[in-house]
Amino acid sequence: MEETLNLSELFKFLKKRIPLMLGIIALCVSISGYVSYTYLTPIYEASTQILISKQKEERNTFDSQDIQLNLQLINTYNVVITSRAILSRVIEKLELNMTPSDLQSSMRVSNQQNSQVVNIYVQDPNLQQAVNIANTTVEVFQEDIKRLMAVDNVQILSPAIFEENTKPIKPDPIFNMAVAGIVGVMLGAGISFLLEYFDTTVKSEKEMNDLFDVNVLGIISVISDKEVKKNNKKVKPISRRSRGGGYV
Amino acid sequence: MSKRKKIRLQMLGRKLIAFINPTSMISEQYRTVRTNIKFAMPDLDVKTILFTSASPGEGKSTTAANVGIVFAQEGKKVLLIDSDMRKPSMHYTFQTTNSPGLSNILSKQWSVADVIQKTFIEGLDIIPCGQIPSNPAELLGSSMLDSLINAMKVKYDVIIIDAPPVLTVADAQILANKCDGTILVVSTKKTKKESIIRAIEVLHSSKAKILGTVLNNYKIKSDGNYYHYYRSFELD
Q: A214 at the B interface (CB within 8 A)?
């Protein structure tokens, strides 16, 4: 018994399992959609931008060295913003019921390469709270940086604002369902192959011919209800004819 | 057609389809089996054909009965013998009594002539199973069976024996050895490949001549066209 699987057979086999696969995909997508819409708390994100640029009082021109210095400072600032020192003051100020590390994990700081603008993103189930945290953090940072680094080069470019109808960034039900759909395709194919592997029954005449060195003398279909119904109407004329030997 | 007969026919609708509706697709499929049996042994005039399967419930009895019917419709004199002494069913199919039957002949209680029953199908006689004996294998292995078959070969053109499943009891092996040809009935999507391999091995070991297999309970996907083709062909 040689098991060979060519492409057309594979296709035929998958075609046969289409209902099963569609069912699994639909199930995955609907579970994912249901969970996304009902169970997962929507998370909102607020962002604020700050500009790192030293106020020049003595000179009125920038030189590239200053910019370079600022850029290097930005990396330090990124760490400082999410440091415990800043965040614990934010929590104190807003009377938040969370630890600095909780807050740290809901915060993200990024800046474009060679840009002096730093973005601060805050995620929270409550949009208003996210906005407050973002703005407070920036304010605290702006105050503290004077003390910490003895420089005053942080300006708030655009504070976070509360907007009605802001869509939550998480969960993204469409994305979740798309992922679930892909998972469903793989799961469906996997289950189909497993079923095929474990199903050792005979399925076709071709299989019989391939596997056994014995002729297939005939194929008998399932006697359907349709056929039986038809019979009852036609019993008389047909049976009489046939008994006359009409089909020899 | 009497009322009684009509009721009987309705009850038989499912099993004896080759008699009830000879123009149906399924009857045509049984005729194909009949033709292929003849082609399978062109040099030898097949007289005794054994129908068996690997496991129970794969459609041996129905296939045996219907193939018998299509042989009878061809004008042959057909004798159907129910040798399934564990679970006889032929008397239900043909609405006759089970006893006396084959077991009574083999235990020499009854003569053959008294046991053979005519059916409502012309040219088709049956020997039902008879009382279920305690020692079916010994009875079937006795020389009485050989002499019965030899005697019947003279009177009938085709003798069809409905046997028990080959993998459950030894009866089918004993019978297969005594018959000219054996047909293995396979139920689509039910019979395991492994069982078929074993059934064939067992039959080979008993020196049975396997004519072939019949693939039963086969679902045709788009039966519409196939069916109509046969219908128009038959009715013209």
A: yes
User: What tens digit of pLDDT does each residue of B73-107 get?
Assistant: 999 999 999 999 888 888 888 888 888 899 999 99
Q: Rounded to a whole number, what is the distance in Å from the CA of A19 to chain B's nearest CA?
A: 15
Q: What pTM, to 2 d.p., does this model score?
A: 0.64
Residue B77: phi and psi, rounded to 5, are -90, 120
Buried b / exposed e along A92-120 (16+ C-beta atoms within 10 A): eebebebebeebbebbebebeeeebebbb
Mean pLDDT of chain A: 78
Mean of the per-residue pLDDT values of chain B: 84
Chain B interface includes A217 (CB < 8 A): yes
If one counts every other C-beta atom within 10 angstroms of the C-beta of residue B99, the result is 15
Q: What is the pLDDT of residue B233?
A: 42
* Distance (Å, whole) CA B169 – CA B227: 38
Q: Give B68 to chain A, closest Cα distance, Å.
A: 13
Chain B closest-CA separation from residue A212 CA (Å): 7
What is the value of ipTM here, to two decimals? Answer: 0.77
pLDDT at B169 over 60: yes
Task: Look at B17 and A236 and tell me if their CB atoms are within 8 Å.
Answer: no
Q: Sign of the C-alpha dihedral, residues B50, B55, B61, B66?
A: negative
| pLDDT greater than 60 at residue A239 | no
Please tell me which residue of chain A has the smallest CA distance to B38.
A217
- How many beta carbons lie within 10 A of that of residue B147, not counting itself? 12
* A204 touching chain B per CB within 8 A: yes
Interchain contact, A201 vs B191, CB within 8 Å: yes
